């Protein structure tokens, strides 16, 4: 059985962090990324984009894992 690569783990961690941020938004109307980096600043937009790319990567990763 092949182990997950560093990129796989990084994408999974980013997906979890993004999911927790959405949990905070949904239950408490609190956006942690906006609270730390400012609302819709360049850095917050980059963070949102990286988490989104990690999500797309994990979608393809899950297909790879299901083949095992």
Structure description:
- With 68 residues, the chain is mostly helical.
- The protein has one domain (6-66).
- It contains three helices and no strands.
- Helix 1 (6-28) packs across helix 3.
Give the SSE map.
Blueprint (H helix, E strand, L loop, with lengths): L5 H23 L3 H6 L4 H25 L2
Keywords:
68 residues; mainly alpha
Average pLDDT level? 93
How far apart the termini lie comes to 8 Å
What would you call the structural class?
mainly alpha
Tally of extended strands? 0
Beta-strand residue percentage: under 5%
Give the overall shape, derived from the CA principal axes: elongated
How many H/I helices?
A: 3
- What is the number of independent domains? 1
Task: Offer a quick outline of the entry.
With 68 residues, the protein is an all-alpha fold. The protein has helices spanning 6-28, 32-37, 42-66.
